[in-house]
């Protein structure tokens, strides 16, 4: 299997395990972007706890699933989004208002669209979760 994107592979593994009814999933390899993305998902309640395991290689992550995930996706290429354009991307990517999150990488770290709008910060589009 060819790895196009570590983040994309991670999200696909999570969604596939969720659809099969699994309670946990093992993700490898790990990266800082994947860990920050998962922490935003955890803060919004889409996944349970996750634990990083250092195997002196690329690392592993064990994620506890809670059955709240419908769909995830990575946006490639990572489009630049200004703070004023966030609302139009929300309308384009999410199925309904108040349902799901879009995750950006900004100068203030990896944030969801609500927090980026509150801080009036734009950034690059990473992906969406609902």
Automatic annotation (TrEMBL):
Presence of the UniProt keyword Acyltransferase in the record: no
Keywords on record: Ribonucleoprotein, Ribosomal protein
Pfam families: Ribosomal_S8
Top-rank taxon, per record: Eukaryota
GO molecular function annotations of the record: structural constituent of ribosome
GO biological process: translation
InterPro entries reported for this sequence: Ribosomal_uS8, Ribosomal_uS8_sf
Coiled-coil intervals: none
GO CC terms, sorted: cytosolic small ribosomal subunit
UniProt record similarity statement: Belongs to the universal ribosomal protein uS8 family.
PANTHER family noted in UniProt: 40S RIBOSOMAL PROTEIN S15A
Annotated NCBIfam families: PRK04034.1 (NF003115)
Protein name (database record): Ribosomal protein S8
Source organism per UniProt: Botryobasidium botryosum (strain FD-172 SS1)
